Amino acid sequence: EVQLVESGGDLVQPGGSLRLSCAGSGFTFSNYWMHWVRQAPGEGLEWVSRINSDGSVTNYADSIEGRFTISRDNAKNTLYLQMRSLRAEDTAVYYCATGLKILAVAPFAYWGQGALVTVSS
Amino acid sequence: DIQMTQSPSSLSASVGDRVTITCRGSQTINNYLNWYQQKPGKAPRLLVYAASSLQSGVPSRFSGSGSGTDFTLTISNLQPEDFATYYCHQSYRTPQTFGQGTKVEVK
User: Does B71 reach chain A within 8 Å, measured CB to CB?
Assistant: First the structure.
């Protein structure tokens, strides 16, 4: 069974940093693109970032460019999102997701349960 | 960036109704258009991918259509478990983008 489990969500002060993790199991983690998607309270879905199978290609939403870094450790089957210079508007549930397809354009067939990040003083 | 505009933002319907949600892209997305269902407190669930392909395990009352910039999700014979929020999503260009969502409520 495919599973994605996020961890690391927390309450953090504005300007602070936080690292989210997403552990994958039930599939060959190293084969696929992985994504982060977030959802602010009461709002819609926002794509945040993606990384290719070996970590050599990364892309980011304009809203977080330069502040967030996506990475992966295929030996640990884990995806990361390092978040810096956090702002109140970064408050959201952060989901990791994958299509379990080789193509970067694959839809998100599998999602984690989400990790809540709250940025507040 | 490609903007995805969904309509309506909400609708009221009854069990058994036929429901149609539309999604328009600000430029062509080569049919890389996906639809998700989300219930409160849960992760989204993929319903339709590549504009019209039904994801495995999704009931056949859900269907997708369209091409170019204009796409539609149809729910025929609406069931109680279908009251939820629906999002379109283009995976053609980075940054990938979602529509703002359509909430299907009980009439």
Answer: no
